[in-house]
Write a structure and sequence with these properties.
Elements lengths: L10 H12 L2 H13 L6 E2 L15 E6 L4 E5 L5 E2 L4 H13 L1 H5 L29 H9 L6 H16 L7 H10 L1 H12 L7 H12 L2 E2 L1 H12 L17 H11 L5 H7 L4 E3 L4 E6 L3 E6 L2 E2 L6 H14 L13 H6 L12
Antiparallel strand pairs: 1-9, 2-3, 2-8, 4-5, 6-7, 7-8
Helix pairs in contact: 3-5, 3-11, 5-8, 5-9, 6-9, 7-9
The structure holds 6-diazenyl-5-OXO-L-norleucine.
Length: 352
């Protein structure tokens, strides 16, 4: 029987949700998709951060978490990898929470660039980085993280990731040191912004903080929980704890929709149509507001730095379930209908 709507955060609720999702037909759909795209071997693992090149190119995790707390983890869904650019919307949220919208917008815009994520590019009129989803904007928002010293700032960052994931989050020190040793382009961006007063004098410390945020370890399961927290108005559906004030959720989601997939953002908005963010280690998170989030991990990337299988999975799910946020007149069965379906796996309906 379907339980009442809303997050199931108590012990019994969690158990019921596990039983429900274990028997859900959505699990079969996700397993089929995973099996189909596991055969795709296009793309290359990122190597400009040398430590990332050590990733298993065939790793493939697929997760869905719903706003009422159902969890679907397929394949390598618990495999940890560094979050990289997927940290950016969440750090943008932390900056908004600390300073408010108007102050943050004096340091970073919300306009897509159409350029690569690491472009050395500021808006000529305002000297601001274009948006918080590219490296320049992310360094500017990292600069806004409060704290008396580096360790207090790192602590604030990790607490925020912890609220979104519903568990303590740790740094991959090898990846951190590897990016720190090779991140000259990000240093150039940081110092250019210092020249224009877009970041504070503690730019070197902020760059270290940015390298730390990119090195936080998550799984596709975690990405789906983080995304479901945004889909759920800022409250983690598995813990019931608020991770971000509700008023800022729309700021994260709108910039994810317009800028989250870099110079593929327009094509993504057209084809997939849900707010999303990718990272060079091969993660993608996508959010269907009010319903659920999808997390994918597959490290082989296309030329724009997006996970090849990740894009394929999202395109397929969006088309199959009509997930595009501007969809109207969708004829098929929605994911919500499938989740509410009484026809559980292993049972046949009388008409089947
Ligand atoms: O700053 C960098 O280049 C990386 N730490 C993050 C880049 C990234 O994930 C872009 N993603 N597609």
């Amino acid at each position: 029987m379907d339980g009442p709507p809303g997050p199931k955060t108590d012990h019994l609720g969690g158990l019921l949700n596990r039983m429900k999702s274990a028997a859900s037909p959505l699990r079969d759909v996700l397993r089929d998709l995973h099996a189909t795209y596991a055969t795709v071997h296009d793309g290359t693992v990122a190597s400009y951060i040398p430590e990332l090149a050590k990733a298993n190119p065939d790793a493939f995790g697929l997760s869905v978490v719903t706003t009422d707390g159902q969890v679907f983890d397929i394949g390598d869904a618990q495999q940890l990898f560094t979050i990289q650019s997927i940290s950016k919307p969440f750090v943008f949220g932390l900056a908004l929470e600390a300073h408010g919208r108007e102050t943050v917008l004096t340091k970073v815009g919300v306009e897509p660039t159409g350029e690569a994520f690491n472009a050395i590019l500021l808006d000529e009129a305002s000297n601001r980085p274009f948006n918080p989803m590219v490296n320049a904007g992310a360094i500017a928002t990292a600069d806004l993280i409060h704290g008396r010293d580096f360790s207090e700032r790192v602590d604030r960052l990790m607490q925020m990731f912890g609220r979104f994931c519903g568990r303590p989050v740790y740094i991959d020190n090898g990846v951190f040191l590897s990016e720190r040793a090779t991140g000259h382009r990000n240093r150039a961006i940081g110092h250019l912004m210092l020249n224009f007063g877009m970041v504070s004098e503690r730019v070197e410390e902020t760059l270290e903080l940015y390298f730390q945020q990119c090195s936080a370890l998550v799984s596709s399961h975690d990405l789906a929980v983080m995304g479901a927290t945004l889909a759920n108005g800022g409250v983690n559906p598995l813990t019931g704890a608020r991770a971000i004030p509700a008023t800022y959720v729309k700021d994260l989601l709108s910039t994810m929709l317009s800028c989250g997939m870099y110079d593929y953002a327009g094509e993504w908005a057209f084809r997939v149509g849900i707010p999303a963010k990718s990272g060079v280690s091969g993660g993608v998170v996508g959010v269907v507001p009010g319903q659920m989030a999808i997390g994918v991990y597959s490290p082989r990337l296309d030329a724009k730095g997006n996970s090849v299988r990740g894009i394929k999975v999202f395109e397929a799910l969006s088309e199959r379930f009509g997930l595009h946020v501007f969809e109207s007149g969708f004829q098929g069965e929605s994911m919500r209908e499938l989740l509410l379906s009484k026809h559980q796996r292993g049972r046949t309906s009388p008409s089947a």
